[in-house]
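hey m, so remember when u said the tokens were messed up on ur end? i reran from scratch. heres the input so u can diff it against urs
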Amino acid sequence: MKRLVSIFLAVAGLFAQSALDIVHSASKDILKHSQFGFYARYCDESKALLAIGEENSLAPASVLKVVTTAAAIHFLGADFTYNTPLGINGTIDKKGILKGNLVITGSGDPTLGSEFQPQAFSLQEILKMWEKAIRDAGIKKIDGDIILDISLFEEQDVPDYWPWVDIGNYYGAGPQAIIMHDNLYHLVMQPGKKPGDPVTVLRTEPEVPGLTFDNHIYTGPKGSGDNGYIYAGPRQYNAVLRGTIPAGVPEFSIKGAIPEPPLLLGKMLETHLNSTEIQHKGKVRVSESAVKTNKTLHTLESQPLAAILLPINRRSVNLFAEAALKRTGAEIYGKGSTDNGLKAIDKLFDELKISREGLKLFDGSGLSPVNMISAKNVTDLLAAMKNHPEFAAYYNSFSIAGDELSGGFVSRVGKGTILQNNARIKTGTVRGVRSYTGYLTNKSGREIVFTFIVNNYHCSVSQINQLYENILLELAKGN
């Protein structure tokens, strides 16, 4: 009997596929015509467990966010907080009149009124805090302007090479040094009664004064979901609407990028102050040059960076990633710009002694289709971060496979397998790109780092997802 079992196991072993076999098989099937890179290794050993196309320069999609967050936590630290001061440059007379300007100085904090950061103050709470600080200073009237100082970051909001189809929508909103409400508005519409009927634009939340729409959205079938797109560049107040929203609901909303978030925040503060009888007669204006203040009335402090990494690596919020990139650049080079943030990433690779061959980046979120990075670049970075003093905060920002609390797609990965509550995964998706990267502990207790990137595939995303899960399951066996 023992002999029969031994023969059976030996025969079964002949048909077992290694991770490399799985990729080779897929390259002749679902990955035919695509470009790809697969790389996996132990954290503490450079020898590859899986290496095929690992040095190909590929578009990574949102997997790039693990690079941006590594740079942010390396140069800023897990305990770093953004501080947004409210100050004055002037004097307050005996009648409570501010002879001068009220100034909000931007620090690049992406969490002001954020829907993606549960612990963040709402916009209404922030306005009330600022009102109280102004009132406590004895100010009853502002004779000067309300100035939004955005000088810490460059004037250009959106990185080069972002697709036109993206930048008018909320996921294509770029950061200035003052960010509010995730730089997004909800566009609320009323669909028609049947497919093909025109759609009525009802309102935006929050209200964006001056914003108009050239509406070409039509009603789609019931249950067809959000297929509406907003086309507008930064600081443009006329947006073109295209696509469909579903029939069968009284209202349906999609999310757009606010044209000038700092200006809108200033106007909201002015409206709030006037409603509480703190008069303002001057202008609301944005300054791209630094504005000096002689007194600080209030400082709004964010949560630590460790908490802000969660919306980036778990919810894949592009705005938060770009804000982190620019703030990292500002910390090292004095000005928050995409270019300075990318220089910081180069500096990170150099300091961690990781090869930058194959690396050519244009943003920090992965939305640009012309970003280039290799699976080996990313995997080696993750391995190096294992020994970083801030590793715990970095590691905990990844989604946990099969964990419903992590939310998103990864919460459905590997359920009922060794991957559940084990693998830490960051995914990436843009048109024609699907990618995974992260950490995995195998049955022998050794930690593996991995990156899988596929570009220009012709199969379904679900087929790519299943391929990736099969590879992870094979790596987890620890053979």
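this time it looks ok to me. Residues 1-15 have pLDDT under 50 and may be disordered. if urs says something different then somethings off w ur setup not the seq
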